[in-house]
Write a structure and sequence with these properties.
By secondary structure, the chain is α/β, with parallel strands linked by helices. The strands form three sheets. The protein has a seven-stranded mixed sheet with strand order 8-7-6-9-10-11-14, sandwiched between helices. The protein has a five-stranded parallel sheet with strand order 1-3-2-4-5, sandwiched between helices.
């Protein structure tokens, strides 16, 4: 067995547990990994110097959850609930994850979208205690030294952001740290990746957001963003340092500016184990939604025509994965690509435009120039429109009605986050299509009643994909991440939707069953990892059982 495989099989938290067994008294209570709060047993209280430092009552796990739920419900807003949960994670990590894993559908919107967007906007104002690593451009030449300041030596996942394109909110600089923190919480809560192996990172290149630079409570570098050349050199120092300090680590690039995202993924995807969630994760969840929609229309993927509103890294990432998926059905790449069109702020991407980036050019087909999205729909006749523009209400009544005239079941996917940036609401899509739209959005919308029917809108959130990829990579110690893994994950998500759910308009599995969906997808991805020879551990005879054996369980360790 390799050293990598051996380290992967070590009991969770062994090194940190042994290191921290010397902690006693108030110092033990301040360690969120070992603190049990009111659940310390009588023997532990005696042996570890805790007598008198807490009330005499000893709580069961159920009582602890009851108290947390009571306190949480007393908070007047979702942002206050987010702050409360953040403090719970800082104080008692086991209890935090026990809460999240008890009802993921209920708590996911509080620890991630849509509440995390508001939290990032207010990050410097609600800041309590630092999490993760902040690596600023002023520390050039010292990145490896900074990584050594992190206490855990077996880091398997880093989610790293530059804070330049946070959700649909733009450049939030250091405030963007809320995104890596939230993403990694979902790795654990939804797919069982042990939290001690995760590390959120904010690479601080400054910000061009004047309101932040003038805010006395802003926590980041007070300078405008650095030049691309300096950014690339610093990212390369970071990647090299991660390879040296955390050789088994997978890097997830998150919420980088579109051109940076595309360039960095191309540079590192074949060198290290990494992916970009905004490109590949978004693409996979969109593909899962399309596959779910096609189970309703009973049509082939290769027969569809797609029109995107938004031609940045997310739009082209979805387009690239759709192209790859169609090619796997037997459609030549060029023919598959010809079925995909993109539209941006300057109009339809077509072959006469001279302002396109290299990653956009494959989708610039011959067509007369137009800046009218409805006109483009009329001439291209797409079966699906996908919004990744962050332009609220861009799918207006004309857009939806035009799609409904062309298609019996128009596929309408306003994927932009947060909710305030969604291209349309679920109610608008159903109403303007006379109830015929197949709808999914990036942010959650409540059920819609329309002429005696109740539609349950799907939420095409990357959360269906990246935790599953994470668990598969963690369990198998994968050396690389490929597009095939994202296609397989998308198909695994789509096949979890029941016929009854499809009849109600739901094209993603319900979030009440999201953990089962994640582990099912992780199993399928692990199969590919083993099949392609990318695993760092021996192939397993029962992959489902193998995945289950790796799942983190939020249970307190016995300390005496």
């Amino acid at each position: 067995m390799t050293a990598l495989a051996a380290s992967a099989r070590e009991p969770s938290r062994t090194k940190n547990y042994e290191m921290n067994m010397t902690l006693r008294g108030v110092f033990l209570l301040r360690d969120p990994r070992l603190n049990k709060s009111t659940a310390f047993s009588e023997a532990e209280r005696e042996a570890l110097g805790l007598i008198g430092l807490m009330p005499e009552g000893i709580d069961t796990a159920e009582i602890q959850l009851q108290r947390v739920l009571l306190q949480l419900e007393q908070k007047p807003s979702n942002l206050e609930k987010y702050i409360y949960l953040t403090q719970l994670q800082d104080n008692d990590e086991m209890l935090f994850y026990r809460l999240l894993m008890s009802d993921p559908a209920r708590f996911l919107p509080l620890v991630y979208t849509p509440t995390v967007g508001e939290a990032c906007l207010e990050f410097g104002h609600i800041f309590r205690r630092p999490k993760g690593l902040y690596i600023s451009i002023k520390r050039r030449g010292r990145v490896r030294e900074i990584l050594r300041n992190w206490p855990e030596r077996d880091v398997r996942f880093i989610v790293v952001t530059s804070g330049q394109r946070i959700l649909g909110l733009g450049d939030l600089g250091a405030n963007g740290m809320g995104i890596p923190i939230g993403k990694l919480a979902l790795y654990t809560a939804l797919a069982g990746v042990p939290p001690q192996h995760t590390l959120p990172v904010l690479m601080d290149f400054g910000t061009n957001n004047e309101s932040l630079l003038s805010d006395p409570l802003y926590l980041g570098l007070r300078q405008t963003r650095t030049a691309i050349k300096d950014l690339d050199e610093f990212v390369d120092e970071f990647v090299t340092a991660v390879e040296a300090e955390f050789p088994n680590c997978c890097i997830q690039f998150e919420d980088w500016a579109g051109s940076d995202a595309v360039r960095l993924l191309a540079r590192y995807r074949d060198r290290i184990c990494c992916f970009n969630d905004d490109i590949q994760g978004t693409a996979a969840v969109a593909l899962a939604g399309i596959l779910g929609a096609l189970r309703i229309t009973k049509a082939r993927l290769s027969d569809q025509t797609f029109l995107f509103l938004g031609a940045g890294s997310a739009g082209t990432g979805i387009a690239d994965l759709l192209t790859e998926a169609m090619s796997r059905e037997g459609t030549p790449i060029e023919k598959a690509r010809a079925r995909i069109w993109l539209f941006d702020v300057n109009g339809l991407l077509e072959s006469t435009r001279g302002d396109l980036a290299d990653f956009q050019k494959p989708y610039a087909h011959p067509h007369r120039p137009t800046k009218d999205f409805v006109e483009a729909i009329g001439s291209i006749k797409p079966s699906a429109i996908i919004g990744v523009s962050t332009v609220a209400k861009a799918f207006n009544q004309r857009v939806i009605e035009t799609m409904a005239r062309i298609n019996e079941r128009p596929i309408i996917f306003p994927y932009s986050n947060p909710t305030s940036h969604s291209e349309c609401t679920a109610e608008e899509a159903y109403q303007w299509s006379d109830g015929r739209a197949i709808f999914a959005s990036g942010s959650p919308f409540p059920p819609v009643k329309w002429r005696g029917r109740t539609f349950v809108p799907g939420q095409g959130n990357n959360v269906y994909i990246f935790p599953a990829i994470g668990m598969a990579v963690y369990a198998t110690c994968a050396k690389r991440i490929t597009d095939e893994m994202f296609i397989v994950a998308a198909r695994a998500v789509a096949e979890r939707v029941t016929r009854e759910e499809l009849d109600a308009g739901l094209i993603y599995p319900p979030q009440s069953e999201i953990t089962l969906t994640e582990l099912h997808a992780a199993e399928r991805v692990a199969e590919v990892i083993f099949k392609r020879g990318l695993a760092g551990v021996p192939e397993q005879p029962d992959i489902a059982a193998f995945i289950q054996s790796q799942v983190y369980k939020p249970e307190y360790p016995a300390l005496v």
